[in-house]
Amino acid sequence: MSSSGAEWLMDGGLMEGGLMEGGLMEGGTVTRPCRLLDRLPRDADFLGDDTLLICPWLEGLDLEAGPWLAALSIHDCNAYLEGDWTFIASPAERERCYFGVFALDRLRSQDGLFALLRRRGVDAIVNLPSITFFDGATAQTLDSLGFDAKAEARFLDKARRQGFRAALCVRAGDDRAGGNGACVLHEGPGHPFSFIR
After folding, report:
1. What is the 3-state secondary structure (H, E, C) of the chain?
2. For the chain, what is the domain count?
3. Contact criterion met (CB below 8 Å) for 116 and 108
4. What number of other Cβ atoms are within 10 A of residue 103's Cβ?
5. Quick check: is 1 in a domain?
6. What is the pLDDT of residues 88-111, one digit of tens each?
7. In this structure, are residues 1 and 40 in contact, taking their beta carbons and an 8 Å threshold?
8. Where residue 10 falls among pLDDT bands split at 50, 70, 90?
9. Rounded Cα gap, residues 168 and 181, in angstroms
10. CB 14 within 8 A of CB 20
11. Which InterPro entries does the protein's record reference (predicted)?
């Protein structure tokens, strides 16, 4: 993947608005920091206890804006799955890794995406980039075209039925956060991602 090996640490501590304090979300849900990687993880990436969000489609994008720009149709986010690589990690390491997959891919069928993921040794995914990065009129327009959070959730539900672990990426404060298993929370550009289970 990337020769630069760029990575981004996304803090899981206090978030604006008081949603999370000290790693706990309201109601006592445990949170962990997330770290985005634009490449497959290396041994040193597993030294901490953070959740790794593996997003090779970030390679070449600006470090701060990359996750948010990738939600735009600037490139084929899932093309990295067609490369020649295999994800190899211990069970403990795998437990902390989720691969970013564009759930609303119109270039590949869902079954085709699942087959590519299996061939690469991937067993856990997150809908990243997410349609929930958009709000207001843009979100309404995308929603009218079938690009909505419900479609992402259906994709992840199907992935779970196919045997994948799946984390839902949603905006912090979304009613679905923490209700059905693993989630990656965001508040938009300039704010950290956090992982909750």
Report:
1. CCCCCCEEEECCCCCHHHCEECCEECCCEEEEEEEEECCCCCHHHHCCCCEEEECHHHCCCCCCCHHHHCCCCCCCHHHHHHCCCCCCCCHHHHCCEEEEECCCCCCCCHHHHHHHHHHCCCCEEEECCCHHHCCHHHHHHHHHCCCCHHHHHHHHHHHHHCCCEEEEEEECCCCCCCCCCCEEEECCCCCCCEEEC
2. 1
3. yes
4. 29
5. no
6. 999 999 999 999 999 988 889 999
7. yes
8. very low
9. 8
10. yes
11. Aldolase_TIM, Pyrv/PenolPyrv_kinase-like_dom
* pLDDT for residue 89: 95
Distance CA 173, CA 72 (A): 23
Percent over 90 (pLDDT), the chain: 41
CATH number (domain holding residue 114) = 3.20.20
Tokens 């006592």 belong to 28
Is 58 inside any structural domain?
Answer: yes
Cα distance from N-terminal residue to C-terminal residue, the chain: 29
Question: How much is the average pLDDT of 47-65?
Answer: 85
Range of the domain at 103: 7-196
C-alpha 149: how far from its chain's center? 14
Q: Is the pLDDT of residue 68 over 90?
A: no
pTM equals 0.79
Rounded Cα distance between 154 and 178, Å, is: 17
Q: Please write the tens of the pLDDT for every residue from 123-179.
A: 999 999 888 888 788 778 877 887 788 899 999 999 999 999 999 998 888 777 766
Residue 162 lies in a domain: yes
CA-based Rg of the chain, rounded to a whole angstrom? 16
